[in-house]
Write a structure and sequence with these properties.
Layout: E1 4-9, E2 12-17, H1 28-43, E3 49-54, H2 65-70, H3 74-88, E4 94-98, E5 101-103, H4 105-112, E6 115-119, E7 123-125, H5 139-146, H6 149-157, E8 161-163, H7 164-170, E9 175-177, H8 182-194, H9 198-210, H10 217-232, H11 235-251
Parallel strand pairs: 2-3, 3-4, 4-6, 5-7, 6-9
Antiparallel strand pairs: 1-2, 7-8
Helix pairs in contact: 1-3, 3-4, 4-5, 9-10
């Protein structure tokens, strides 16, 4: 059985973690398949965005415990986190469609995506404290990048869990939608960058990431000017501006 499924439609790849018998627990084998899937997607110029979800009933309920127990050194632990880091480092825009429990290492998959959509049955739980293991894979850093210090403390140190609605209220998720609408809403969002020039979305994503290290307005302007000039000499910009001008002319 394939542990990772991939379906491509209208420029959007839907990648599904697929081991429902163990609630899509993160394993070394699953991570290897994710590497292969994302290598293929990044090489496929027809793909412009990715939706990541889990085979029901969960998104991903944490690490495979046997693999985790066997990972007693930094190199082995790195193998446990390679899958979600592959998602985190892809230049493709990514949307997490969290359709159930996203726990521990499984929650890392949601945190790795650019945007998180939560279904009404979503549940976010750090759970490292509960099994007496320190968080790994950049879990606390990514949580702090999305939320505030108090949220990270409540979830990691105090073991609080969040449903989809609460996650959206505090900004961990972009929004919470009915479970039946979750995948279509995630695909709807993903189609926008998927239909844009791929080089442009890649540059935009990297700029937003880099802005986390920018301290003032002047540096922000300087960071944006080069990719903006680059985008203005691309044929897509000129074509779309010409089409917009024509539409304005016809409507006036």
């Amino acid at each position: 059985m394939a542990l990772v499924l991939c379906e491509i439609d209208d420029g959007v790849a839907t990648v599904t973690l697929n081991n429902p018998a163990v609630r899509n627990a993160v394993s070394v084998d699953m991570n290897r398949e994710l590497d292969e899937v994302f290598d293929a997607l990044e090489a496929d110029q027809s793909v412009g965005a990715v939706v990541l979800t889990g085979a029901p009933p969960a998104f991903s309920a944490g690490a495979n415990l046997d693999d985790l127990l066997a990972a007693g050194d930094p190199k082995s632990l790195s193998a446990m986190y390679s899958g979600f880091l592959r998602v985190a480092h892809t230049p493709l825009p990514t949307v997490a469609a969290v359709n159930g429990a996203a726990v521990g290492a499984g929650m890392n998959f949601a945190l790795a995506c650019d945007v998180i959509l939560a279904g009404s049955q979503a549940m976010f739980e750090s759970r490292f404290l509960q099994i007496a293991i320190h968080p790994g894979g950049g879990h606390t850093w990514r949580l702090r990048q999305i939320c505030d210090r108090q949220t990270a403390m409540a979830m990691v140190l105090f073991g609080e869990r969040l449903d989809g609605r609460r996650a959206a209220e505090i900004g961990l998720a972009w929004k919470c939608v009915d479970d039946g609408d979750l995948l279509e809403e995630a695909r709807r969002m993903a189609r926008r960058p998927a239909r844009a020039p791929r080089g442009l979305t890649k540059a935009m994503k990297q700029t937003i990431i880099d802005m986390g290290e920018v301290a003032d307005s002047a540096a922000a302007v300087a960071r944006e000017v080069e990719p903006q000039v680059w985008s203005m000499i691309q044929p897509e910009f000129k074509e779309r501006v010409a089409a917009l001008k024509e539409a304005i002319s016809k409507s006036s």
